[in-house]
Amino acid sequence: MIRIWIFILVWFFASSIFAAKRPNLILILADDLGWADLSCYGNDLHQTPNLDRLAKQGVRFTDAYAASPVCTPTRAAILTGLHPARLHMTIWRESALNRGNRKLLQPVCLDSLPLKHVTLAEVLKQAGYFNAHLGKWHVGRAESYPQAHGFHVNIGGTLWGAPQTFWYPYNGDGYFRDWRYVPNLEPGNKGDYLTDRLTEKALVIMEEQAKASRPFYLNLWYHTVHTPIEGKPELVERYQKKIKPGSVRKNPHYAAMVHSLDENVGRVLAKIDELGITDNTLVIFTSDNGGFINKCKLNRELAVANNAPLRSGKGSCYEGGLRVPLIVRGPKVDQGRVSSEPVYAPDLYPTLLRVAGLSDQAQAGIDGTDFTPLLGNPDFSLPREALYFHYPHYYQTTTPVSAIRKGNWKLLEYFEDGRLELFNLKWDPGETRNLSTTRPALAQELRADLDAWRKKVEAQLPEVNPGWKPRRK
What we know:
Number of domains: 2
Structural class: alpha/beta
CATH topology of the largest domain: Alkaline Phosphatase, subunit A
Strand content: 15-25%
CATH superfamily of the largest domain: Alkaline Phosphatase, subunit A
Shape: globular
CATH architecture of the largest domain: 3-Layer(aba) Sandwich
Number of helices: 12
Radius of gyration: 22 Å
Order of helices and strands: HEHEHHEHEEHEHHEEEHEEEHHEEEEHE
Helix content: 25-40%
CATH class of the largest domain: Alpha Beta
Mean pLDDT: 94
Largest sheet: 9 strands, mixed
Number of strands: 17
């Protein structure tokens, strides 16, 4: 019996030491931040010095994609490494059960991530990580909250996709029709800004875990820059002065929110340095979908984002709805490098597990590809042929659509009328010239690939609405 206890104690301490050597993982996810919203991606209005510096210290991806043009599907894909079409989670939670009443009936989707899926957090938890989720969750109802998917702590995560306001106490029934709140941020004070408060909580957790010499996984999923568009007044005024009559981007409220996001990323990076864990901490910054190009009820006269030079925005399977910023910094990551290799959200699952030394723990049959080779060699080519996107729903920017990117070629297939659109992203990243009629054989080949993939993952499709009648003009 004594020998058994000695063995248990030795195993426990050995496991603790082994766990302590694993790198810390910080995944910062912005909400609705467009590909062109950072200065290091060419934005001429927004000032993002901290994220620009992060890009110089790591690898910046020019061709990174969300898993979906809307939020919930991408978040589920990050957690599981599975494509939203395979998960049957292709629209945000509140609309998952709504078929609508348009020309096509949207498929009924899952509104919560099933517990049968082994999440990134669950694998890390088994390996000794302390997992904390802060901010937007939006991956399901209460039975599918972060605590049910491997997180020790949940600060702010709920079933809702956005707060009523970014100002304390963040609740009420003002901007959205239902009453909402952001939990676990009490006590607070008048004037507290949600993005700042989430960071404050994150810094405390980082310090506690660093002192305990325990590796941590920080899921810092900010609500910003989602509507309601509420920047700090002094920053709004600052950006209003920068906007000229000929400026491409004209929304000072949105610019102020991007500014605050950058400031808070800077606070996280400063804390990493202060704690002396820079050499053992991987930081990933990205967004859940492209920028929202429609208008906000608070600033009715202004479009929220402008994704130029990319086409369209959130909800659309054009580049403006799918392509997002992605910056990675950490141990064994090249500094100041740029990669044009296409990667997307499901890749984060196997990549983070590889960095943590847990590749063998990744669930079988995932859709993501480990892109760690790109962190040391941005010119590396990943062993896959194509990226696929599936949004069988309606949005302000689109009708139901699927898309495939294969090499530099991209095809969109619209379900209402079977229309095909073919673009070469190398020559035409703004998707201005439809080549489907000049390259019909290629268009049909890509359409066949897309259809085969949909069958393989058992993607849900929209159906003809027998009761639909077109409006009279």
